[in-house]
Design a protein that fits this description.
With 432 residues, the chain is α/β, with parallel strands linked by helices. The chain has twelve helices and 15 strands. It has two domains: 130 residues, no CATH class; 279 residues, Rossmann fold.
Length: 432
């Protein structure tokens, strides 16, 4: 097909030229009724070059008359009519694409005919350069009805609304090792697929579950439920594995140990999630290293909070090879580069879920790691076999600031929208 590269332009020019006419496509009730009443799978677009288009004198080549007849070369009108008669199609409308010298027509294939067969026949017709179904395109941003979404500046920074036009983490399981979670929080009801407590004697009261509830909200808080906030991957499912407990009642800070973490990691390996989030940090641990290496060998992508270069002796598991380390990007760091190997994500005054159905602003690399975990979930919806190396490469690339998007970027941290678009460019997500 010689003109396949012009397809997006064809549809764009069609809508722009039609709207400029007194008797436009949109003003023709007969054409509108045909489009609305027809099975969209039975509508074909056909295009071919017409050297006469720009030679028409005295009239606008893009002006329309009723029934799809308009001022254009009579040759092109004869061709479209011949095609309709020969293939027993109904011509809905036709128009000249004056800027590229192409004439286009839209046909309705009767229900009694095979669209696939007609399409193949037209593709072999020497008069036809393009034949395709009439594709539909949608804008990729989204207006959420969650009342606190406007306050989630971190998600605006990473352009989550644009990313959600392509992926929301559907069919991706995330394991989270943390404190417990408020399982009846309005934004988390139905989002927790599995829960188990590995520190039952230390952390029964809900006040011990602040950290885990906050991380869970950033990961999977429901969207468009007219409640609270949205998560980075609102259609992902969460395995909540409780291995930590609050340092004191109502404290965001929490503590875990080798034993409870080992039990939780072991359980995570059995559950076989796509991603494991560990928004915690501590010293190197031989037992946990063995378990995490097993998780990684099994294809689980592990994301961990990284406190930064000033805590080199307390950076595990972020310091472990093949774990994705994530640092907090503060508002004051918008034009700074943090630790080279780490992924940078917003971590300053992040609005998220807290126990007892509440919300508040919290800060730290724990929240940054949760957001990166959510972005990986968006990627894995699009490519379930996404590898660790692919994920790391895409995340780092999204943190760059290409010239064409510089005006849209608020930080040099990870960007969910650019990450999703980069993967789509590689795997051809379709009309995204």
């Amino acid at each position: 097909m010689k003109y396949s590269n012009f397809l997006p332009l064809l549809l764009l020019l069609f809508f722009s030229t039609a709207s400029n006419s007194d008797e436009s496509f949109f003003g023709n009730p007969e054409i509108i009724s045909l489009f609305k009443g027809a099975n969209p799978d039975h509508i074909l677009l056909v295009a071919f070059p017409d050297q006469h288009i720009n030679r028409i004198q005295g009239v606008s080549p893009s002006s329309y008359r009723r029934r799809g007849k308009y001022h254009s070369s009579t040759w092109s009108q004869r061709v479209t009519s011949q095609i309709a008669d020969e293939y027993h199609l109904q011509k809905i409308t036709e128009w000249p694409m004056t800027e590229v010298g192409i004439h286009c027509a839209v046909y309705l294939v009767p229900d009694t005919q095979s669209v696939k067969k007609v399409k193949l026949q037209l593709a072999d017709d020497g008069r036809v350069e393009i034949v395709q179904r009439m594709h539909q395109f949608k804008t990729q941003s989204h207006q959420y009805n969650d009342p606190y979404y406007q306050l989630q500046e971190n998600l605006h920074d990473i352009q989550i609304d644009l990313a959600h036009g392509i992926s929301t983490g559907r069919n991706v399981d995330i394991a989270m090792i943390d404190t417990g979670v408020d399982l009846i929080h309005p934004d988390l009801i139905g989002q927790i697929k599995y829960f188990k407590n590995f520190s039952p004697d230390l952390a029964r009261h809900i006040s011990n579950n602040i950290h885990g509830t906050a991380v869970a909200g950033l990961l999977v808080a429901r969207s468009d439920n007219k409640t609270g906030i949205i998560g980075v991957a609102p259609d992902a499912s969460l395995f909540a594995l409780k291995a930590c407990w609050a340092d004191k009642p109502n404290s965001f800070a929490a503590t875990c140990n080798s034993f409870t973490l080992a039990l939780a990691i072991n359980a995570a390996i059995k559950l076989r999630p796509k991603i494991l989030n560990m928004s915690l940090t501590g010293p190197d641990d031989a037992l946990l290293t063995i378990l995490l290496k097993k998780a990684i060998a099994d294809g689980i992508i592990v994301v961990a909070a990284d406190p930064g270069k000033n805590s080199d002796n307390e950076r595990f598991p972020a310091s472990l090879k093949n774990v994705i380390p994530v640092q907090a990007l503060k508002r004051s760091d918008l034009n700074k580069s943090l630790l080279g190997q780490s992924i940078d994500a917003p971590g300053d005054h992040i609005l998220t879920t807290l126990p007892n159905g509440t919300y508040d602003f919290v800060s730290g690399s724990s929240l940054s790691a949760a957001q990166v975990t959510g972005i990986v979930a968006l990627l894995m919806e699009l490519k379930p076999d996404l590898t660790l190396d692919e994920a790391i490469s895409i995340l780092h690339q999204s943190a760059l600031m290409p010239t064409k998007t510089a005006a849209l970027r608020k930080s040099n941290g990870v960007n969910a929208n650019l990450a999703v678009l980069q993967l789509c460019d590689e795997i051809n997500c379709g009309a995204y």
